[in-house]
Amino acid sequence: MNPLLKNHLDLTRRELFGRSATGIGTVALAGLLNHDGLATQPASSPLGGLPGLPHFKPKAKNIIYLFQNGAPTHVDLFDYKPKIMEMHGKPVPDSYIGSKRFSTMTGKANGKLMLSPVEPFHQRGQSGAWVSDFLPYTAKIADKLCFIKSMHTDAVNHAPAISFLLSGGQIPGRPTLGAWLAYGLGAETEELPRFVVMTSVSKGTTCGQIFYDFYWGSGFLPSKHQGVRFRGSKDPVLYARNPRGMSREMRRDWLDGIAEINEHKLREYGDPEISTRIAQYEMAFKMQASVPELTDFSGEAKSTLDMYGPQVHEPGTFAYNCLMARRLVERGTRTVQVMHAGWDQHGSLTTELYTQCKDTDQPSAALVRDLEQRGLLEDTLVIWGGEFGRTPFLQGNFNDRKKWGRDHHPYAFTVWMAGGGVKPGITYGASDDLAFSATENPVHVHDLQATWLQLTGIDHERLTYKFQGRRFRLTDVHGHVVNDIIA
Fold first, then answer.
1. What is the rounded CA–CA span in Å between residue 287 and residue 194?
2. DSSP string, 208-234
3. Distance in angstroms (rounded) separating the CA atoms of residues 113 and 89
4. Mean pLDDT to the nearest integer, 424-448
5. Which of 21, 76, 119, 417 gives a 20 to 30 Å CA spacing to 69?
6. What architecture (CATH level 2) is domain 70-236+312-465?
7. Higher model confidence: residue 344 or residue 17?
């Protein structure tokens, strides 16, 4: 059979719609959409940002999110409450529980015994912020931090709560913070991805959380805006290196040929994923040169490496990823998400919590100090926190101290931020006297998201994307900027 005729006979459904969409039908459809105000998104700027963004002068041009998977216990780390110590071993008062729901591991909280913090608290620096002895390095930089101790969320389990915090929806499928910033503000460099994700977990932990891809997904935005996950090795990006026997010149010629074919298909079908494929190939080619330099720490001063701690020399650790985060924003990556799992202390408050803090405390503080020393903290927002807190009451047997734990607690928890236009040395909001509920200046997840966007020069109500007949945004239909913490 004639190959050309066979090609027409084998026409796929997608190709049929793609080809029939050209011509007079396209013109008519475009006219109808424009008449009804339903046209697609506006054209992007050369580096991928939307026209008119930022909406106002940004205070932060980069974000580093030190996300602590599994929910750090606010009761043991930041939220000092003398009454909890007074009630140690006594049942939690029913008046604090009300209609609150907890995970199936707790079920009904009535009758659960209150549990004192495992380590003592002290007020730190001139600000007098309360920080536990679990975090001695964070304690030393307390005056550089803005603590929000009145956070609360809607979700009671890990994956929905993480998705809610990062994307504004508990059900996977919406764009995450880094994807929104990549879509709205574009890139600062063409040599590295605009949104990078790195993950780590403490060795020997029994409570590691799974890192789902939707934690850095682009949802319904074009997939070129999704986070690029760097592996925990000296070769962080798969397939970026040339195969044996292929020179860089050969790779360039090969990519040019593929790009020509893809450009032809893009003109024919208008599928934005073809544009994404072209961009990904080009980024991979550029990263062949930029990534080896990025991962080469030989130029870092010994004092800098020592500041991050001994694990900074081990790829895949939280310390290594923190230094990589600084090097990434230094080179133009807009958003870096550093995720560390293992904080799910259902039965390991007196054991594994020490390991979690040891692995993350020194590098987190070092990152803030390092950015400040290099003049980068002023326009880099550093965020530290998890998806919710832990219950002020005990999970487990009160007489078995080695297995003390705390369950999930969405009604009050703590995050801290530094740089990027937030006020340093302040504590905003408060929980009640048992760290049970956010009572003073409560900050909902959507409020926090609105504030992050505000700091990057974006009005959270105006950065939207039309999908399935409605305009979506990071903050859904909620959120108020917490202006009191903005410098």
1. 12
2. PPP--GGGG--TTS-GGGSPEEEPSSS
3. 5
4. 98
5. 119
6. 3-Layer(aba) Sandwich (3.40)
7. 344
Write down the pTM of the prediction: 0.88
Crossing angle of the two packed helices 272-294 and 248-269, in degrees rounded to 10: 160
Sign, CA torsion 392/393/395/400: positive
Given a contact cutoff of 8 angstroms between Cβ atoms, the answer to whether 95 and 365 are in contact is: no
Report the SS3 class of residue 245: coil
Helix 248-269 to helix 13-20 angle (10° resolution) is 70
Measuring CA to CA, which residue among 247, 167, 163 is closest to residue 212?
A: 163
Distance of CA 143 to the CA centre of its chain: 24
Q: Based on the number of CB atoms within 10 Å of its own CB, is 403 exposed (0-12), middle (13-18) or buried (19 or more)? A: middle
> Cα separation of 116 and 416, whole Å?
22
Chain segment 199-225, per-residue pLDDT in tens: 999 988 887 678 999 999 999 999 999
Q: 478 in helix, strand or coil?
A: coil
For residue 472, give both structure tokens: 């979506």
Instruction: Tell me the pLDDT tens digit for each residue of 298-337.
Output: 999 999 999 999 999 999 999 999 999 999 999 999 999 9
Q: Is the dihedral of CA 470, 475, 477, 481 positive or negative?
A: negative
Q: Which of 432, 327, 359, 426 shows the shortest CA–CA distance to 389?
A: 432
Phi and psi, residue 459, nearest 5°:
-80, 115
Contact assessment for residue 474 and residue 175, using Cβ atoms and an 8 Å cutoff: yes
**CATH 3.40.720 placement within the chain:** 70-236+312-465
Give per-residue pLDDT as tens, 57-75.
999 999 999 999 999 999 9
Return the closest-CA partner of residue 431 out of 73, 24, 69.
73
- Cβ–Cβ < 8 Å for 334, 452: no
**Tokens at 322, concatenated:** 């923190």
Six-digit token string for 378? 């002023």
- Buried-state track 207-227, b at ≥16 Cβ within 10 A, e below 16: bbbebeebbbbbbebbbbbbb
Identify the bridge partners of residue 132 per DSSP, sorted by sequence position: 121
Contacts of 313 (CB under 8 A, 6+ apart): 297, 305, 320
Task: Give Rg (Cα) of the chain.
Answer: 25
- Copy the structure tokens of residue 439: 């009572």
17/22 Cα distance (integer angstroms): 9
